[in-house]
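Fig. S4 source data, part A: sequence.
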Amino acid sequence: MIKQYVKQAVQMLKENRLISIISIAGTAISIAMIMVVVLVFQIQFASFYPENDRDRMMYVDSGTEVRSNDGWNRGNMSPEAVKECFYSLKLPEAVSGYASQAKPLSIPGKRMYKAYDIKYTDPGFWKIFSFRFVAGKPFTQADFDSAIPQAVVSTSIAKHLYGTTDVVGKPVIIDLATYTICGVVEDVSRAADTAYGNVWVPYTSDHILMSNVYSENMSGWFSVCLLAKDSHDFDALRQELLGQTARYNATKKDAQINFFENPITRFDVAIGSIGQRKVKLKDYLMETGGLLLFLLLVPALNLLGVTQSSVQKRRSEMGVRKAFGATFGVLVRQVLYENCVITLLGGALGLALSLSFLPLCKDFLLKDSGTLLSGDMIFQPAIFLLALLFSLLINLLSAGIPAVQVARQQIVTSLKDGEDNR
């Protein structure tokens, strides 16, 4: 029976080409709009290389306040604050302090002036983020403790500097300071905003970052990323940080450091939390949920009129079938099965359009036009399943309602194409 319904649906597509095209296009546009919105959010929230464990990550970024008798300031932490408040935590699986600066890169005998993103960090960075090394290895704890100028570079930087990725052991000059390349990793998308960089070096190797501190050596240039052993540890981790902060503050004469509601989760980051401002989940869902509902219902309501017109034209056919014993359920299922073919075609086209629109429109939709998009960033089975559910809902709205109305009509009314017997 289902096979027969599919054959009838294909025949109807051929007979009513205009209505079929409108129905498929309407479904496709609806799915595409929803998918693009969800995919843009997903890129900020879902896990992908090298931030493969975003569901367990927490951040302290520009969320530090230091108060003293001389006043107060908000910004980032000093290396000492990172060490005393975060490296001493027991609950996290890994902790990393980092700072980013744009500096020119050169090689001996070749002076260059273009600035690249340099990430100053520590060995914990390589435990949190799953970088794929194509050559060499990351700098070690011994390199970090001894402030040895080692550097990990991306493949594009290695090729730009030397024309090859076989650069381990070769020098790279970062703003007049010479570093030795110890590893090469695959390029990182700017969407992975915490892990992103062109070059990664031990922050202890830069004496300016280490010495540029103030407010009793509490404030500086550093942010922190933490990897919890489990996402259920977030609250306990915040409580442990409060204890460490109180202990650290007790060692100071006047200054006191505070992290507001930090560390925040990746979800807080994705919905726009910065520093001390934290967006409530219900407020975010009301805003984005309303937008998604609008994108879903407007095309569906438009399709409702088109599909209803198509079903109304089949009154006589359904009246004849009803006269020969077809039940209400059989008539409704036939219309739903037939329209489901159209909806699935539109859904597949909508998915394809969304995956095409996102790379084409990334300059407009994403924060940075240089963001690289990889397959694991935009291909998430759960999102496609959600889009399929949207397709089914559109099918229910656009075909189910008029089918029920027509199937409930008297046989005589259906045979007369809806005209009253006067």
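Fig. S4 source data, part B ends here. The chain has 16 helices and 14 strands.
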